[in-house]
Every structure is written in C-alpha cells, then in structure tokens.
What does this fold into?
Amino acid sequence: MQNTKTFVKIAAVLITACLIIPTAWAQDAQTQPAGDLTITVVDQAGKPVRGVLVGTKRRESDPSNEVLWHDMPSPLVRWGGNAMRAVPLATDAQGRVSFRGDDVFKPWHQSRAIYAQDPAGGRAALMRVTPKDLGNELPLRLEPACLISADFRCMALDDRGIPMIETHSYLDWKDIQIVLGHNSNQKRCAFIVPPGEYTLRLQGFGQGIPLPNAGGESSHKGIPTKVIRKTITIEPGQRHLDLGTIDFELSKQGLMVGEPAPPLGKIALWKNTEPFTLEDHRGKVVVLLFWSRGCSGTSADVAWLGGIHEHLKDRGLEVLAIHEADPEISDRVDFDRLAQPLIDEEAAENAGGVFPDYTSGKVPIAVAGGEGLGDAYTAYHVTAWPTGILIDRQGRVRHIFQHYLDYKVIERALEQGVKAR
It folds into this structure.
C-alpha cells in the first residue's frame, strides 16, 4: 500500500473562503501599514491596569482547562488566526502595549477591533481602530463584562442518526467581522464582552466521511447546517446572557448529503478533458471543486487538486474544477490568458512539496454556463468558495468540503467506499 503519510495534506490550502459577494479589492494595492499603535488600558477610574491581555482578535477552541475569569470557567485558549497577531500582548506597569502596524492591519483592512480581557477579573474592552491611528497612543477603558453562553443541537441531524461534531460561533461588532470566535466539539459557545450591540453568526457541522484512527473511527465535519444570525445587546452591569439551547437546521447543501448528485447543467467550456456527465463516472469517487480566478488563493486549490488526481486516479478518483460563469472567458484562449497562469504559478510554487510530480495542466476544468454564477453553482447551492463536493461511487453526495479539501477524507472514500446510511 502506498505510504499515505508522504502525501497527506491536512492543512487548508486556503484557510478562509472568499464569499461570493461584490468586493472592492482596490485596497490590495495599498502599501503595508507602517508605524506602531500604542494602547493604554485603564480602569473605569482612569488608572492604568497591568497584565491585561490585548490583541486584534480572540479565538477560542475546546477543550481547555484554562480559567480567565475567576468566578466562571472560560474555554478561551488562544489568540489570533490567519493574517493577524497570533499571541496577545500583556500591558506593562503603565498599562501600555504597542503593536507593529503590520500586526494589526493588512492592505485590505479599513478597520480592526482591539480586544482586551483582564485575567484578574470579569472585565473586558473593545475599540475600533483604523490605519490612521498608527503612530498614536489610544486609551482603552475596561468595563465590567458579560459572559454570553449558548448550547447547540441539530434535531435534523439527530433524526438522521448523524452526530453534530463541531460548531463554529463568531461574534461581529459594528462593521468588523469575527472579533471573537469559538470553535467547539462540545456543542456550546462562550464569549466575554463589554456592554454593546453584537451580531452572533452560528453554524454546526454533522459528521461526514469518518476517518480511521487507532481507537476506531474519528469524525470529520462534512454536513453543514444553516448559519444562524442573532443580534444581541449587552446592557451596562449585565454579567451573564444565557441564550439557552439553539437548534440548527440543515443548509441546502447539508440536505444534499446522502442524495443523488444533481447534474452539472450547462458548461460553457471544457479544458483538459472531454465533455462528460456525472453518470459517465458512476462507480468512481468524484470531487467537484468550485473556484474563481477572482478569489485570491483558490487557484492553489486547483493546482493541489491536480496533485491529488495524479496520485489517486488509478484508484478510482475523478476530479473537476468548476470555475464560475465568466463573461470574459468564452474559449480556451481566454482561459489560458486569464486563469491558467494563476494555476501554473501555484503549481510551480508547490513543486517538490506534498505532491512533487504533478502537473497542473492535467487538471480537468470546466467553466460553468447559465445564468448568474452558473448552473452547476445553482445546482449545488454554492455560496462561498472554495467549496468541494465529494460524490461516492453510487453517485450520491457524501461530503461537503468548506474552505479546504482534505486528502485523508478523499482517500477514505476510495479505500472503503461510502455505504448508504
């Protein structure tokens, strides 16, 4: 058997999805922010506070034994995330911390949130900063904070006998997304926030294709629920907001899992393959990858998909990278001019890596036809990219990849197939 450890790529090729909404990318051309941003954290009396943790974003993850609020356990375990400061700073005796400009802002950021939490007591603070604030010293006042908590369930998954194995909870504030985030395998969320108005975005994931481990079958998320949005207001002096148990509904994609894969509909252009239907590949595992040349990073997924295909096609894998309907791409000449260079660049950059012998030119590609984003996007309810759809040998949708593809899941589907529930 092939040594899969050599080829397994668990990490996301693209960690965050590009939402399919009109986006102005003019900020990309701006220069990187320069200069320091100094924050002075004070209490309500204006006295500097030492030892307060300050960062651009707080990420939470289970499990954890850490207690950051003396009278309440909190699952907060790490700071940071993609393209931001990963480690918080602690205020000095004068209550100060200083951030480098590029620790706070990237060229596309118009504003960021600075979050502070006092481990010595239930106090927190938030402030909005912009690149114009660089080079200045700004005060940030701690306030008595509120612990927001909720439990989750998904009766739609329960009715199907499918466990909900992970939940993602994000807290937005003003015009800033994901000030706080909590990814949990315990069906819960918890946030510590000062008074104010916030929006919660909540989503659950059911078990998709299970993965083997030493103790048996481990779980892997592959069935998304609908996203729930809740606007909440924390009043001054409020110390706890229990949202109770929130029941998720399955998304349109989640409802597809276990059902026959719909046809692709109109395809405007085929590249590196003859035209085919999914029925033509019945008996094989098929991975559809939805991408766009306009979304930075998804070309890397296409190049990586080519690597997967080269290594697994003899074991029954077929792939198709489906580009959104694009009025600028009407033939292969247009595609080779506008999209192929992006794929080739990613392939060259990754040459000698996880899949050292793949050539991106062999990746089967289609450009969707039809209205809007294209028939295929409509059929598979694609609202963000990269999105991957795994179709089993019986022609059923069996796994939804959001934001990344997982080699182990694809290999698992090939090794054992996926039995109907």
